[in-house]
Write a structure and sequence with these properties.
Layout lengths: L2 H4 L8 H15 L8 H16 L5 E6 L15 E2 L6 E10 L1 H5 L6 E8 L11 E7 L13 H11 L8 E5 L5 H9 L3 E5 L3 H9 L7 E7 H14 L2 E6 L4 H9 L10 H4 L6 E6 L16 E10 L5 E9 H7 L5
Parallel strand pairs: 1-3, 6-7, 6-8
Antiparallel strand pairs: 1-2, 3-4, 4-10, 5-8, 5-9, 10-11, 11-12
């Protein structure tokens, strides 16, 4: 096999294979929903996702995973995933986005995965956080991390031909956001505070008929890359700017060559032209229903599956036979 063959771009809709991966993670984590076991639920999701990933025909490298190898025995950054056959791809995963949400039985926990061609996903390096803003195609050109928030929400209201009091901004409930929240409310707009869930919030900001118009705030950089992949597939825009937590992190980022003033678009964060994204609900949320058990031996899932090249968005409702899943899943589910 020559080099051009081994680095061929994806020529099939991998998203339809990846949905099996996020379904597996969600089904594995679901029995621990509400049990107060963050680590247990997360590990179950990781195990379910990794087991199914090895069946996907691809040579994948985890760019955004569960941490470094010594800290994450499975789905660590740099791990090779898939059966080793072409195409060569970058993978970003969050087997259980919102571990605390799942542990406490709260809404909007998801299992998510994104995939793009090899070398096209942004490596966050030492920067754990980034400032983010995301919105639908209707307001994509209005996003600006340097413009005062009050002005942006006013522009959003004008573009949508609605009262500013109708504009809703989703923000992580963190002390670092107090000034921004005050500015949004002083302008007359509303704020939806969420305890966790950067990716689900980004999905909410770009999903049609959503109660949310805009995402703003400082959240995880890895989640920013996954969100950028989702936004690239769904439409709209996501902007991000690295946000070092302290002087040591700032110095490390500068030494590694990162421009801390640069505003990164969705295409900077995920540069591939053929991007795939899949999310499956673990607990009920605004975007997806969680895993449910309509019968003693059955389970249902809802997933959002999309591909940037085609722009097709699928919602997949699936019914699973848990006994059959356990038979080939090594006791999972």
């Amino acid at each position: 096999m020559n080099a051009s063959e081994s680095h061929q771009p994806p020529d099939r809709n991998l998203a339809l294979e990846l949905v099996r991966v996020t379904e597996a993670a969600a089904l594995a984590a679901a029995p621990l929903v509400g049990m107060g076991e963050k680590e247990g639920a997360d590990q179950a999701a990781v195990d379910g996702m990794r087991h199914m990933l090895h069946s996907v025909r691809m040579d994948g490298v985890v760019v955004i995973g569960e941490g470094e190898k010594d800290e994450a025995p499975m789905l660590y950054n740099g791990e090779h995933i898939g059966d080793g056959s072409p195409p060569d791809v970058d993978i970003a995963v969050d087997p259980l986005e919102g571990t605390a949400l799942a542990a406490n039985g709260m809404p909007s926990a998801l299992a998510v995965i994104a995939l793009s061609g090899r070398g096209t996903m942004f490596d966050p390096g030492p920067c754990v956080y980034m400032e983010k803003m995301a919105g639908s195609p209707e307001i994509a050109d209005l996003l600006d991390l340097d413009r005062p928030l009050a002005e942006t929400v006013k522009l959003v209201a004008e573009r949508k031909s609605c009262a500013i009091s109708d504009v809703m901004v989703v923000v992580l409930d963190r002390p670092r956001h107090e000034d921004g929240i005050a500015a949004i409310r002083a302008a007359g707009a509303r704020v939806r505070l969420i305890p966790h869930g950067d990716v689900s919030a980004a999905l909410l900001a770009v999903t049609e008929r959503s109660p949310v118009d805009l995402l703003w705030g400082i959240g995880g950089t890895p989640e920013g890359v996954i969100s950028a992949a989702a936004v690239k597939c769904l439409g709209g825009q996501l902007l991000g700017r690295l946000w070092p937590r302290d002087d040591a992190e700032r110095e490390a980022a500068v030494a590694a060559g990162y421009d801390l003033h640069r505003v990164l678009t969705r295409d900077d964060l995920v540069a591939g032209e053929d991007v795939f994204f899949s999310a499956t609900g673990v607990t009920d949320g605004d975007v997806l229903l969680g895993v449910r058990y309509p019968s003693a031996g059955g389970a249902t899932t809802e997933s959002l599956v999309t591909r940037s090249r085609s722009g097709t968005i699928r919602r997949i409702l699936a019914t699973h036979d848990r006994a059959k899943l356990r038979a080939f899943g090594g006791g999972r589910y």
